[in-house]
Write a structure and sequence with these properties.
- By secondary structure, the protein is an alpha+beta fold.
- It folds into three domains: about 100 residues, no CATH class; about 100 residues, no CATH class; about 70 residues.
- Helices cover about 25% and strands about 25% of the residues.
- Strands 1, 2, 3, 4, 5, 6, 13 and 14 form an eight-stranded mixed beta sheet that branches. Strands 7-12-9-10-11-8 form a six-stranded antiparallel beta sheet, with no helix packed on it.
- A hairpin with a 4-residue loop joins strand 9 and strand 10.
- Helix 1 packs across helix 4 and helix 2 crosses helix 4.
- The longest helix is centred in the C-terminal third of the chain and has 26 residues.
- The chain is globular.
- The termini are far apart.
- The C terminus is likely disordered.
């Protein structure tokens, strides 16, 4: 679903006219983005993978910024990752981080027994600087350029927050063109998209990172771990970008509508929209699993007749 269609359907769903002051593009796009992340956590429609190279005696490794949850599970429902020692694959399962601390296994081993997911101990620092070129707004997006350093945006990712501190404008990083150029969507206090001017000061605030922690720590360098994960969708803040959900477009709108109604403190309508979205996710879940050939299992509690 493209951005224009999403805005139109959201406005129609909550019953607001095109001239209503209740809506503004920034808030609508932001709520649709939050709804898209929630929808994908529930349906796992968009997935990706990350490969980590092990460092001896190091237990914790940061995950990609778009990590939205583990994707693969055993038939018993246990999340797992693939650990390769250079020759063989070993599939290790997850346990709660509290148990990692409680077990207190500090002596390293060749292949860890378990892993856990937690908020990363080391987060990515803010990035500050000054725009070195104009970036005219087009279809809700404007490019932020800073060539003062060839690696200025090396640690910046889609979904990070961006602030124009000269113009008091705020928004989000849409994508990274290079380590010196970012596609952004920034807005004034009325929620209208704005441009960048050469000389504008900016601050980029990276989104929080998660990490994987191995228990016990691995003892050998250069082993690899492959993590299949639910990928947070890239933000859509333009009429001509789109979310790529195969089936759940109606649920996307309903989740966002529920968030809009919570802004109104209208809990009844908020709950109704959310319940409709949940019901739609359940109904389409089987279809999505069938199309993508996902592993699933059921339990039959009927008494066997001999």
């Amino acid at each position: 679903m493209d951005g224009w269609t999403a805005l139109w359907q959201l406005r129609e769903t909550i019953g607001e006219g095109s001239s209503s002051d209740y809506l503004n593009d920034q808030l609508s796009y932001t709520l649709l983005f939050e709804a898209a992340k929630e929808l994908n956590r529930r349906t796992a429609s968009i997935v990706s993978s990350q490969t980590i190279t092990i460092v001896a005696e190091q237990a914790e490794y940061n995950l990609n910024p778009d990590f939205g949850g583990l994707y693969l599970k055993t038939t018993d429902g246990e999340p797992f990752v693939k650990y390769n020692d250079g020759t063989n694959d070993t599939f290790i399962t997850m346990k709660p981080y509290a148990e990692v601390i409680y077990d207190n296994q500090t002596e390293s081993v060749t292949i860890p027994d378990f892993f856990s997911i937690r908020h990363a101990t080391t987060q990515v620092s803010n990035v500050t600087g000054t725009a070195t070129a104009d970036g005219t707004v087009s279809n809700g997006e404007a490019t932020l350029t800073d060539t003062a350093s060839s690696t200025r945006f090396a640690n910046v990712s889609s979904g990070d927050a961006v602030h124009n501190t000269t113009g008091s404008e705020h928004g989000i990083v849409i994508s990274k063109t290079s380590n010196t150029a970012l596609v952004t969507a920034i807005f004034d206090s009325n929620g209208d998209a704005q441009s960048w001017s050469s000389g504008d000061a900016y601050v980029i605030v990276p989104q929080p990172r998660m990490s994987i922690v191995f228990d016990p720590p691995p003892s050998t360098s250069s082993h690899t771990v492959t993590i299949e994960y639910i990928k947070n969708p890239e933000p859509v803040f333009s009429p001509y970008r789109s979310y790529t959900f195969p089936y759940e477009n109606g649920e996307l709108i309903r989740y966002a509508a529920g968030m809009y109604k919570m802004r109104d403190k209208d809990a009844t309508f908020a709950a109704a929209f959310t319940q409709q979205a949940d019901r739609g996710v359940k109904l389409t879940g089987g279809t999505v699993r069938k199309v993508t050939d996902r592993n699933t299992w059921t339990m039959n509690l009927k008494k066997r007749r001999w």
